[in-house]
Amino acid sequence: MSFFKKFFTKEKEEDLDKGLEKTKSSLFSKITKAVAGKSTVDEGFLDELEGILVSADVGLETTIKIIDRLEERVAKDKYINTTELNTLLKDEIVTLLSENRTENFEDYVVPEDKKPFVILVVGVNGVGKTTTIGKLAHQYKKNGYGVVLGAGDTFRAAAVDQLQIWSERVGCDFYSKGMHSDPAAVAFETVQHAIKNDLDIAIIDTAGRLHTKMNLMRELSKIKRSVSKALDGAPHEVLLVLDASTGQNAFEQCSKFTEATEVSDLALTKLDGTAKGGVVLGISDQFQIPIRYIGVGEGIEQLQIFNKQAFVDSLFSGEME
Ligand SMILES: Nc1nc2c(ncn2[C@@H]2O[C@H](COP(=O)(O)OP(=O)(O)OP(=O)(O)O)[C@@H](O)[C@H]2O)c(=O)[nH]1
């Protein structure tokens, strides 16, 4: 059985379909309507498509890329009926996602030679950072890993408390030095805690305040330095969490964080509550950082490993019949 079939259960597929409903009805049903009955791809259609993609927060640059490619393919392949055009569009979107190193990765697994595997989670307040950390810890625990959560967002009492609640819910370790403690010290000691207790994974929360780029840069590099002092080669993953429903704001945050630190992976949350699912395409294209996870609901199981084919299939599903 292929990985895709084994891992992508019926339940997950339904979650994804439901999670993408709003994007689907705003973005892709508009596309399908524009496509319907067309036998040539003319200027008018391309203009219409451009407008639809831009309004779904795909971003202008990425939209132009998609349109250009479509034009090229259509000229080359001497097109076309409606279903073929739809397939071409799907192909181009999957290709675009592949070019951005968004490879399908298999299950919640970390390399054996990196123990503890240290994940630094960054992003502004309210994007779903704590929830994403909790969901991640849950998945790793389910796969038999020992996990500790480090409360590195020490600026708000609620952040520390919420993380503790998640650790209790998941049944994993929790490390905190309380509110107003030095986040770099928390990060250092969380890694030490993992080493001492023979744990496999340390997931460290950070505050990610965006007041100035310099401050953010200083804060994150201090945390990174202290993590690498605790364990050579760590952090192994810097995960930036973005709220997909904020559309263009998510682009801006991604830009600020990637300027401030090296981000290795992205999680896009709250796709279920938004029609702006197009940001997935735009962000992965513009920043060339793999999208690793998508949040499709508040439930503990509703953090999915991003699968580009499943994503595109779901977006286009139920259309064109
Ligand atoms: N619908 C939906 N809600 C989500 C998702 N991810 C997180 N949320 C909700 O978003 C809200 C904010 O999530 P938090 O995890 O508290 O966000 P945070 O970034 O840690 O923000 P603070 O803790 O407020 O700093 C919560 O109500 C979550 O349940 C998602 O994928 N879908």
TrEMBL record:
Pfam family, one: SRP54
Reactions listed under catalytic activity: GTP + H2O = GDP + phosphate + H(+)
Membrane topology qualifier: Peripheral membrane protein
GO annotation terms (biological process): SRP-dependent cotranslational protein targeting to membrane
Similarity field: Belongs to the GTP-binding SRP family. FtsY subfamily.
NCBIfam families according to UniProt: ftsY (TIGR00064)
Subunit composition and interactions: Part of the signal recognition particle protein translocation system, which is composed of SRP and FtsY.
Physiological role: Involved in targeting and insertion of nascent membrane proteins into the cytoplasmic membrane. Acts as a receptor for the complex formed by the signal recognition particle (SRP) and the ribosome-nascent chain (RNC).
HAMAP family: FtsY
Name the record gives this protein: Signal recognition particle receptor FtsY
Gene source species: Membranihabitans marinus
